[in-house]
């Protein structure tokens, strides 16, 4: 059944090498297909004969619209193969059935009922192949009272809950939607994890599964404290600038580094070890004498157990040490460049971050050393372009961007070979 990727580059195979995924092109499922392809699966994306409407999404190469110039399409469909089928046509429905018969996984985000109306939904095709894994992403799941409600990425984030937690302390400013299709991407990550789990189960049992992913449910369970706080205590969290939403206002965490870049100071010291490394870092920088609350940092180095956060605001010493730790990390950030601050904190086991633009992420030495930006050849244009590469490092089963996105119908010859058994 498994396909294998006949166009993959050399090197160690990905974790899903030998797995074939048939993906029905869709805005909500595209990121899931991208991740599966990066893991080594052979992902065949199926479009209408004229090309999928996502090819019309901007931005475009050199700001010139065209089905082969959408950077959105390039990003989300890298490493995939591409074929075209008119699923409303009975002959192409037969080709789709034959293609699915060669696959391990089907991935789709179609409107509930559309594929059933065409006779090519999961219940029909899994009846023919019980080992098939079918992963469906829809706004509210395939069943239930809201199954047929329309939704877009914005409403997934808004109705799912994350927007309530995102924005600024100044609540005169509206909540902020996370950019970059985060609603769809959150659901896609659940789809990928579910597909991997189903593949592991199939290895043990031989049976496939139908996976029903609700985009809104996926968004809702990623709201950290917000949903749980409401369901358990009946309290609403309030959004705060650059930090977790919470019922009570927490200490400001952003700082401006010496080179004028915003950084997030993360979680402050809580243990004796944390306080010690912060003081040593300040000594290396020669700034301890300029920090007025060094006494409370020294007190922190004598802790026998971590600070109890529940005592902040109740115990004067705990409150003073916690606040001094927060201010100390901010003070260090203000006296170092953003990159020095980030690397220095990482070396000392302190979690902080730099607030970057996308361009700055790709240029950052840390991310470049990890191989995040990769060059992908577009032989049709006679040049290469910088893509976002592996979201994680796994040397024995690497993630890689292996080729540019397919052009409309580029691999139709492979489709005919697969469906005819040639």
State the main characteristics.
422 residues; alpha/beta; Rossmann fold; 6-stranded parallel beta sheet; 13 strands; 14% strand
Plain-language structure description:
The chain starts with 19 loop residues before the first strand and ends with a helix. The strands form 4 sheets. A 6-stranded parallel sheet has the order 3-2-1-4-5-6, with helices on both faces. It has a 3-stranded antiparallel sheet with strand order 9-10-11, covered by helices on one side. Strands 7-8 form a two-stranded antiparallel sheet. 38% of the residues lie in helices and 14% in strands. The chain is an alpha/beta fold. It is built from 17 helices and 13 strands. It has 2 domains: 20-222 and 372-420, Crotonobetainyl-coa:carnitine coa-transferase, domain 1 (Rossmann fold, 3-Layer(aba) Sandwich); 248-256 and 262-355, no CATH class. α1 packs across α8 (182-205) and α11 packs across α12. The longest helix is centred in the middle third of the chain and has 24 residues, at 182-205.
Topology:
Elements: E1 20-24, H1 30-38, E2 42-47, H2 71-76, E3 81-84, H3 90-100, E4 105-108, H4 114-118, H5 122-128, E5 133-138, H6 153-160, H7 162-165, H8 182-205, E6 210-214, H9 215-220, H10 225-233, E7 238-240, E8 243-246, E9 254-256, E10 262-264, H11 272-285, H12 294-300, H13 316-334, H14 338-347, E11 353-354, H15 358-363, H16 365-369, E12 373-378, E13 383-388, H17 412-420
Parallel strand pairs: 1-2, 1-4, 2-3, 4-5, 5-6
Antiparallel strand pairs: 7-8, 9-10, 10-11, 12-13
